[in-house]
Amino acid sequence: QVQLVESGGGLVQAGGSLSISCAASGSIGSRNAMGWYRQPPGKQRELVAHITSGGTSVYADSVKGRFTISRDNGKNTVYLQMNSLKPEDTAVYYCHLRRELTGVAYWGQGTQVTVSS
Length: 117
Prior knowledge:
The protein is mainly beta. The protein has strands spanning 2-8, 10-13, 18-26, 32-39, 46-51, 57-59, 67-72, 77-82, 91-99, 105-107, 111-116. Strands 2, 4, 5, 6, 9, 10 and 11 form a seven-stranded mixed beta sheet that branches. The chain has a four-stranded antiparallel beta sheet with strand order 1-3-8-7, with no helix packed on it. The mean pLDDT is 96.
């Protein structure tokens, strides 16, 4: 089993920055992609960014140029640096881990990010 624990998040003004992180523990394995999804109020969950075990990253168009995803394999942790935040970035952000060989996926509990205008 895999446990994902998010940290960071909170309230920030528009234009500000925030960083969130997610630490994975348990039977992680080495070949996994990690990333972030978000669910704005009243909307469906959507991909924000993910990064493969090889370091290839993918971003949603809405966050390109503003958000940066990174990972520390030694710490089994993935980070999301969010700059130039907008009110529409307000959402619950969920950490996601997917085993690249089997496709089995795990979710964190989520962390709230609120951007005030």
